[in-house]
């Protein structure tokens, strides 16, 4: 879990993913020699801070977003949320401005009920703050901030080790409205003819989705994927013998939102581990679900 620990520690709030992008590129260049197939690495100004890896003759793309939730410092010690972080007073936040490192505490203003910070000095406006990473590993689980979606990124990087044909896409801005998947999907469709996708992201433990029962195949969230494609994925999963569970929700979204609205005929399905304490500093994922997620992706990318 050393790789996952490192990924969780790196700050990458939506719109400022550059530190994580650099780390992922360095990781790819350092480890690709041990992978079964050497990918084409596409990471330049056309795609901002996103990364595309193309293996062999791709049929399916895996989308994993790099960014996380967090906060932007406004005025008067006020914090503006990035995405939908849990607002729990006493949560430790970290960052850096021109005056130096920041290690402060989240509070709720009693008059406005808005999030503010408590710190020994005023923080420069526009500074981004993220959850302090307290990474905890037991025999059965991982608990940390930003498992959504550093675990999805971890899954994609581990998938690269054995992938022969496929595309791996590391996207940006997912937690705060999206914006990158549209041009990434257009490039993949126009250049390689790819039009089917798996979303390597993290979902919720609910009354119908249990921790430790296997990776989740989502039948729907706020969007509805094409049932014929989802049925293919379900059939492959059933034949594999890998533990999985089905999810039906009416809320939530992912990089699939931009694929659903694309001007190309994209099929997509969300496949990911469930977590507890979503969007908090203490997200919790069962290791059995992590293992199931990676195993299922390896099979799906061979069969789809």
Question: What can you tell me about this protein's structure?
Answer:
The chain is an alpha/beta fold. It folds into 2 domains: 2-68 and 136-303, 3-Layer(aba) Sandwich (Aminopeptidase); 70-131, Peptidase M42, domain 2 (Elongation Factor Tu (Ef-tu), domain 3, Beta Barrel). It has 7 helices and 19 strands. The chain has helices at residues 2-9, 18-31, 147-159, 181-192, 227-240, 256-260, 287-303; strands spanning 40-42, 51-55, 61-65, 70-73, 79-82, 92-97, 100-108, 115-118, 128-131, 136-137, 141-144, 166-171, 196-199, 203-204, 215-220, 244-248, 267-272, 274-275, 283-286. The strands form 4 sheets. It has an 8-stranded mixed β-sheet with strand order 1-2-12-3-13-17-15-16, with helices on both faces. The protein has a 6-stranded antiparallel β-sheet with strand order 5-4-9-6-7-8, with no helix packed on it. Strands 10-11-19 form a 3-stranded antiparallel β-sheet. The radius of gyration is 19 Å and the shape is globular. The two termini are 28 Å apart.
* Contiguous helical run count: 7
Shape: globular
Instruction: Please give the CATH architecture of the largest domain.
Output: 3-Layer(aba) Sandwich
Structural class: alpha/beta
User: CATH topology of the largest domain, anyone?
Assistant: Aminopeptidase
- CATH C-level of the largest domain: Alpha Beta
